[in-house]
Amino acid sequence: MIVVVTPNPAVDVTYRVAEQRLGETQRVLEVQRRPGGKGLNVGRVLAATGVTTHAVLPLGGAPGRWITDALDDLGLAHTDVVVSGETRTTVTVVDDAAHPTMFGEPGPVLVPAEWGAVGAAVDELLGHDDADALVVSGSLPSRAAPEVVASWVATARDHGALSVVDCSGAALLAAARAGATVCKPNVEELLDATGAADERAGALRLLELGAGVVVVSRGAHGIAAHTTDHVLEVPAVPDVAGNPTGAGDAATAGLVAALVGAGFRTGTGAPFDDDRLLRALRSAAAHGAAAVLRPVAGEVDPADVHRFLTTPDPDRTRTPA
After folding, report:
1. 149-162 per-position pLDDT tens digit
2. What is the pTM of this model?
3. Which end of the chain is more exposed for a tag (fewer CB within 10 A), N or C?
4. 319 - beta bridge partners?
5. Which residues are designated catalytic?
């Protein structure tokens, strides 16, 4: 089982239009509503490929109740922490030509007791014998202290579970300081959080703080794993076009699924040797590419994942430090 925490869930609304035109009234051709937030996208992709997951998320108000019902309809296991603030909404506008435009509300303010309840749920679930990993993915809501992420990483370490953190800003730094097994930002998030001038310098900063390995999503340029000694790189799956919204979340799902499949558990499992990391990177690339083919975030067709995983191996490079 993989425990997936979504600190700032949302009702994800996707509008499809003929053409995105700033400052003009436009007719919406199609509307999709999904329970969202990066962690829920990760969990839905994992579930679609047959991996057992359990979501932990703070939910409030009518939007929170809608997400609860939607997750029940999808058959996804979840533990909800009821909070006083109202769960946010995000709106993504897509067409067939331009890059999607996303509007994300900041999310509610949680009081310490509510964060404590989230932490207690994480601790309980990771205490189960079948709990292999923790994923923390997405932004923190308004005024949340980044130390909450560090506390979940510490809980995973105490239970001997793998921890993968896909956050930004101070939360990413806090995860590294807490010894996250994998920190997984994209390039922009990495440079913004660390203040580094380039990807390698930013990754080394997170490694110096205590991260086990830093995996960086490069979008159409592939994905890379940084250790203190070298960089492993896998290119993106070629000739895939569609909706890139949620591709990074699908890549996180593919990464953690491969690591868990390789038997890795913090302190007890197999080490991060190059072969295991490369398999995990290739799985991440395949899942990300499969997500691009779907109309909304949080979806993959397992057949697409399998097809991308069984094509001839892409070129891979190992760059010394």
Report:
1. 999 999 999 999 99
2. 0.89
3. C
4. 231
5. 249
